[in-house]
Fold this sequence. Notes:
alpha+beta, Pnp Oxidase, Chain A, 8-stranded antiparallel β-sheet, 8 strands
Amino acid sequence: MKLAAGIVWADQRLHRASSGRLSLVAIAGLPSLRLTSTGRRSGLPRSNNLLYYPYGDQYVLTGSNWGKSSHPAWTFNLRAHPEASIALRGKQIAVRAREVKGPEYDELWRRLLEFWPGYAMERDAAGRELPIFILSREKSPGGLDQPFGR
């Protein structure tokens, strides 16, 4: 967690240089995507490279923020503007976010810990419940995903 800033910096550049096909998380063998949400106050696009949990044809994001006590900015953005997009394996995909609560949260939290046990350490370090969001695909015009950068 102490290396978070350097990892994020390097990951952003790798993602940009590979047109969305590579990330440090992906090189480590874990699924990653680049979330672009709308800033809740600015209204501007905000992008973050994130680890995700594949959940059927949906994508699950966890607001761990590397174990920091504050929620990551993207969680506030998705709450204010659930329509977003993800870059995944070189394609841009329109999605809609939904925050998970109650029994569904408990079930997904269990699955997330099996997938990435580090979430428990990050939750303990943060001293807060980590928000969980499910991203579902939105149909784009023509029903096709768009290549990244177009």
